[in-house]
Amino acid sequence: MAKRRKRGEGSVHLRKDGRWEGRAVIGYDDKGLPVTKNVLAKTKSECASKLKALKDSIQAPAPDQPKPGILLSDWLDFWYQSYKKPNLRSNTQMSYERRIYQHIIPALGGTQLDKLTTSDIQQFYAKLKQGGRLIRAEIYGEGLSDQTVRGIHTTLHAALDKAVAEKLIFRNPTDGCRLPPARAREMQVLSPEEIQRLLIQAKEDGCFELLLLELSTGLRRGEICALQWDDLNFRTGELRVVRQVHRIQGELVVSPPKTKAGNRSVLLPVPVLNILKAYREAINSRWIFPSPLKEDSPRDPAAVRQRLQIILERSGCKKVRFHDLRHAFCTAALEHGMDVKTLSTIIGHVSSSTTLNVYAHITDEMRRKAAAKIDQGIGKAGPPQAETNVAPQKPAPSTFQAHKGKRRKAGTGCVTQINDHLWEGRYSPIWPDGKKHPRNIYAHSEAECEKLLAEMIHEMKAEIAAEKERQKAVAKAS
Q: By the number of CB atoms within 10 A of the CB, which of 121, 247, 334, 416 ranks highest?
């Protein structure tokens, strides 16, 4: 474990350009906010020496008493920009900025740090639950989810903890707040027969290899979309997970896994490896699952999610998330005797305790069966009537026939069911500038969604025609 620097020694981190940067608080401005100064060096030890020399040269000590008059908005902005942002990934930066600049500062930013109370923050959380949603409130409701509120609390708590460390306030007022319960999302797992139907339908819809690999490895959606052929060793069956793909401000971005545990290797079963060998011959791309729309680009994780919902509906399976396929793999692995530590490594959990927390219901059943076997061995007890020593048999082959489906005509957009009460319609025409400019509409039923989509397509076609006429007039005038 890396050695932590003592409070007041400043911070040292490696920059993207390969140099080491040290930063320390050298004083406080008129508002009471810390003023920092940095040093640069080629090595960590040299940087630490320069930082110590900087600290030794500072004559003015940090204030012993909290300074009044500092606004929460000023402190949050300083804390985020100076302490957090330099070490965050781009998508994590977006989460922090949403919480700070769209929720916390508008509600509490005008309050002075030393005047901020637990009651103020508790009322703020209650208002977020009642009417804190800023967009799509007509679809998802006025209030924010428990998980979102807890995330906002985590950010505010960390910022105020740093204020306590800098002696700007005596105590952290978020410590006494009562938070919404941390409810785990209900896990949905397909039955063996449903998995058969899913894969049969996936063959018809061109998604068989992707879903088969997911059910065999439990990769995250962004990880499986980012796989390249160089990551797969056909001789040994080893599949390396070294990157993920996600969206940042509408653009697909490929980046390393978020944690060290995310970099891992998975051994594929021989039947899956043989299927991928045959599939490889039809793919002319470095990506195992390339985008069907853009050259030399991985498949969009959002498109994979939408495709899964279509396949589930056509195969008559219950609605599950893509992440639930990961649960299906983990459940099957544990039920067939894989130990938790090995499973934790395969699926990329930082700690085995995370795996235990998520799959406690399965491991509890495994412990119960183990105790019964010990009782049989020591106490000579007979096997429970409900249990037998017969190994579980494979389910009978499904007689399900793949649904061919109706292919939508070109120019009519697409309709996707998001959940039980929400449908999404999308139209993505090519505009006169040569680019696609998609638009979405939402409705509470498929019929309403089709109607609104048709109206939107009519309006967009009129706009495109008007834009073409405008460009012709400009061309003639010039």
A: 121
- What are the residues facing 232 on neighbouring strands? 239
Phi, psi of 396 (to 5 degrees): -60, 145
pLDDT exceeds cutoff 50 at 62: no
Pairwise CA distance, residues 201 & 178, whole Å? 47
**Residue count (the chain):** 478
Q: Quick one: pLDDT at residue 429?
A: 87
Question: How many helices (H) and strands (E) in the chain?
Answer: 17, 11
Contact 239, 217 (CB under 8 A): yes
The closest of 214, 286, 225, 220 to 252, measured between CA atoms, is 225
Q: What is the pLDDT of residues 320-370, one digit of tens each?
A: 999 999 988 888 888 888 888 888 888 888 888 888 777 766 656 666 666
- Rg over alpha carbons for the chain, rounded to the nearest Å, is 28
Long-range contacts for 282-289 (Cβ within 8 Å, ≥24 apart)?
283/229, 286/228, 286/229, 286/230, 287/226, 287/227, 287/228, 287/229, 288/227, 288/228, 288/229, 288/231, 288/232, 289/209, 289/210, 289/224, 289/225, 289/227
Q: pLDDT by residue (tens digit) across 262-313?
A: 899 999 999 999 999 999 988 889 999 998 878 889 999 999 998 999 999 9
- For the entire predicted model, the pTM comes to 0.65
At which residue do the structure tokens 């981190």 appear?
13
pLDDT tens readout for residues 106-125: 999 999 999 999 999 999 99
3-state secondary structure of 37: strand
Looking at residue 474, what is its pLDDT? 86
pLDDT at residue 61 above 60?
no
Spell out the alpha helix ranges (H) of 31-117.
44-57, 72-79, 90-97, 105-108
Distances (CA, A) of 189 to 100, 252, 301, 325: 36, 29, 20, 7
Are the C-beta atoms of residues 239 and 231 closer than 8 Å to each other?
yes
Give the strand order in the sheet containing 20-28.
11-14, 20-28, 34-41
